[in-house]
């Protein structure tokens, strides 16, 4: 038997004969063909289009979340600038602080209140620049795997016009392993009278 004489439609013809396709009426053939089209469409939707739609919905939700986070960060920046403009008489506020006030313990207290103490990777205090009659006291800290809501709550309690505590610098990155969490490096400063 020559290979060229083999018809490529032979398996299809054989399948049609076994299924009794030729014995069916035209109406039955149309119903079976319609059923095959419907089943194929359902399978295509379930295995191809449905996962694509779900992936698109997840992406849209993620974009909405990121926009909300961005707006919250912008609001915090505006609040920070407003606090800087209202700095007023710093020396008077420093005199009103408790005598045993330290920036390090103040940060720890605010972290405890905001329930983010377990997210603290490090706290590094240092005495730095002189600002006229005042010494600047600084603490560099890192928070790991913190939610946006927890970060906002912590920052609201951290900055204090009354205690002359300001955020000097902040760096925010997404936590690599867990979506929706952040890693944050913050430089917090205050001032005190020369010792």
General description of the model:
The structure is a single chain. With 195 residues, this protein is of the alpha+beta class. The protein has 2 domains: 10-57; 87-193, Alpha-Beta Plaits. It is 51% helix and 25% strand. The protein is built from 5 helices and 4 strands; from the N terminus they run ααααββαββ. It has a 4-stranded antiparallel beta sheet. A hairpin with a 6-residue loop joins strand 3 and strand 4. Helix 2 (26-85) packs parallel to helix 5 (148-158). The longest helix has 60 residues, at 26-85. The termini are far apart. Mean pLDDT is 82; it is low at 1-7.
Gross morphology = rod-shaped
Structural class: alpha+beta
Residues in helices, as a percent range:
40-55%
Largest sheet: number of strands, sense, barrel closure? 4 strands, antiparallel
Beta percentage is: 25-35%
Q: From the alpha carbons, calculate the radius of gyration and give it in angstroms.
A: 34 Å
CATH topology-level name of the largest domain: Alpha-Beta Plaits
Individual helix count = 5
- The CATH architecture name of the largest domain reads 2-Layer Sandwich
The CATH class assignment of the largest domain is Alpha Beta
Uncertain parts:
1-7
Q: Let me know the CATH homologous superfamily of the largest domain.
A: Ribosomal protein S6/Translation elongation factor EF1B
The order of strands across the largest sheet is: 1-2-4-3
């Amino acid at each position: 038997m020559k290979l060229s004489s083999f018809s490529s439609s032979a398996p299809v013809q054989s399948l049609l004969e076994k299924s009794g396709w030729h014995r069916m009426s035209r109406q039955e053939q149309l119903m079976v063909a319609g059923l095959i089209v419907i089943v194929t469409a359902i399978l295509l939707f379930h295995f191809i289009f449905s996962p694509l739609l779900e992936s698109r919905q997840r992406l849209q939700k993620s974009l909405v979340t990121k926009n909300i986070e961005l707006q919250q960060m912008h609001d915090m920046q505006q609040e920070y600038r407003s606090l800087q403009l209202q700095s007023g008489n710093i020396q008077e506020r420093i005199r009103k602080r408790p005598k045993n006030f330290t920036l390090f313990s103040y940060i720890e207290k605010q972290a405890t209140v905001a329930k983010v103490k377990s997210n603290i990777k490090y706290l590094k205090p240092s005495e730095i620049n002189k600002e006229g009659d005042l010494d600047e006291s600084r603490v560099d800290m890192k928070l790991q795997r913190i939610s946006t809501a927890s970060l906002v709550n912590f920052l609201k309690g951290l900055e204090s016009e009354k205690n002359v505590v300001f955020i000097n610098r902040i760096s925010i990155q997404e936590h690599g392993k867990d979506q929706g969490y952040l890693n944050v490096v913050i430089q917090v400063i205050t001032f005190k009278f020369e010792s």
